[in-house]
Amino acid sequence: MNIRIEKDSLGEREVPREAYYGVQTHRALENFPISGLRPKPVFIDASVHIKKAAALVHKSLGLLRDQYADAIVTAADEVLAGNHREWFVVDVYQAGAGTSHNMNTNEVLANRANELLGGTKGNYSMVHPNDHVNMAQSTNDVIPTAIRIASFMSIKSLLKKIDDLKRSFNAKGAEFDHIVKSGRTHLQDAVPVRLGQEFTAYGVNMKRHQMAIAHAAESSRQLGIGGSAAGTGLNVHPEYRSRMVRQISEQTLIDFKNAEDYFEAMQSMRPMVELSGAVRNLAQDLSRIASDIRLLSSGPKTGLAEINLPPVQPGSSIMPGKVNPVMAEMMNMVCFQVMGCDTTITHAAQAGQLELNVMMPVAAYNLLHEIEILTNAIDVFNRFCVKGITANEERCRMYAEGSMSIVTVLNPHIGYAAAAEIAQEYLNSGISIRTLVKEKGLLTDDQIDEIFDLYKMTEPGIHTSDK
User: Fold this and answer.
1) pLDDT digits (tens, 9 = 90+) for 95-149
2) If residue 12 lies in a helix (H) or strand (E), which one and from where to where?
């Protein structure tokens, strides 16, 4: 037979004989065939770290037999090494608070621990999912703790990729610093800027977001593990809370802290909202920058075409030779998804009631999902797009010299109204602004050469050749 019989408080259920999960997980599979989405690997890691730490703490307190604790720890280490992942199967959209995921973790570790002790799956006479793996724990303190651990573990990679992108933008800023182009405001011609100034600004923007996300992540350092079912610490040893935080910190190499208030740590999803908000803010700026790059590279013949993007794949199934800004387009789409994830988290966070927020599973998935996809998107956007951008210097110069807005430099010399008349005459006649100023005798040749130095227009100052 390929099944075994397990029993819980609701009765008996058939469970696949080879499964490391148990009856409660099996019920969740029956009850929640919703999306096919499974927990993120980092969330599994965080949950298992909690179980491993609890086994070690209870062993040190003399509350759990050494052989049982050791078997749980070995089973946890196997999962953390990448084994048995196929048995973490509960859909993201599940029972409130994450009880099904918590029990899935308890059952996998208990069944593997029993095997290690010479027992069989489904026979919990030695290591029991609730009594031993879940000792002194509740879903209500495990899940918010797991979210904090997982988000902190994930954010390190995101911060590294932001830093890499920042460096690439700064490098392009230096490379393009000598290239003068037309600025654009309202998508209309504006005063000259340097292409390097645009890219350096992108680099500074990434630095600011890097700092903001790192700051927002700090709220996740406080762990409410030991709050038990409602924050009171019922059935929890007095030393459990502090020992758990030390043990988890040792395992993850992250300096976690005890929660200031265990009720607040269970009731509020403030740290998740804060971190998600910072990630969302990054996404909105990355989307803006990606759109800028699409505009600047538009063409190659009928668009701006001030920069060239590395061609990474053909752009059309019908138009030969067409190459699209696919990496920037991908970045836009990922950023839209991140903003949607943040909206979900915000709604989930405000839906908490009294001692618990039961919407944690969907918030956990969306927070970790947005961090994951943005990390990956930044990586490939940087490697396959930003690092390979080149400039069309002649095109940039042509637009800068042809921009009507260079008349702005005349304001201190002939006034706004007279400069506006020159601008309109330029548009109507096609005669260059330099020529019009000369023909009208408004400035000398030397003054014109000095004042209309495009590079000088990209720096602060009133440009004149005399006092």
Assistant:
1) 999 999 999 999 999 999 999 999 999 999 999 999 999 999 999 999 999 999 9
2) strand 11-16
Query: How many residues are recorded in the chain?
Result: 467
- The stretch 409-424 carries a mean pLDDT of 91
How far is Cα of residue 410 from the mean position of the Cα atoms in its chain?
46
User: Is the CB of residue 219 less than 8 Å from the CB of residue 270?
Assistant: yes
The domains located in the chain, with CATH, are 3-135 (1.10.275.10), 141-222+268-393 (1.20.200.10), 403-458 (1.10.40.30)
Structure tokens at 379: 């990586």
Helix, strand, coil shares of the chain, percent, nearest 5, are: 60, 5, 30
Task: State yes or no: pLDDT of 467 exceeds 50.
Answer: no
C-alpha span between 232 and 295 (Å, rounded): 57
Catalytic residue numbers read 316
- Token readout for 57 is 């703490």
Two structure tokens written together for 249: 């910190």
- 307-308 and 222-223 as β-strands: parallel, antiparallel, unpaired? unpaired
CA–CA separation, 229 and 88 (whole Å): 23
How far, in Å, CA of 114 to CA of 107, rounded?
10
Q: Of 32, 18, 166, give the one whose Cα is nearest residue 89.
A: 32
Question: Is the pTM value of this prediction over 0.90?
Answer: yes
Under the banding of pLDDT at 50, 70 and 90, the label for residue 462 is confident
Q: Where are the alpha helices (DSSP H) in 81-184?
A: 99-116, 139-175
Q: What is the pLDDT of residues 403-413, one digit of tens each?
A: 999 999 999 98
Give CA–CA dist 362/341, Å, rounded.
9
Helix (H) or strand (E) holding 333: helix 326-350
Q: Phi and psi for 117 in degrees, rounded to 5? A: -90, 5
What is the distance between the alpha carbons of residues 84 and 111, in angstroms, rounded to a whole number? 11
What's the mean per-residue pLDDT of the chain? 96
Q: Tell whether the model's pLDDT for residue 465 goes beyond 60.
A: no
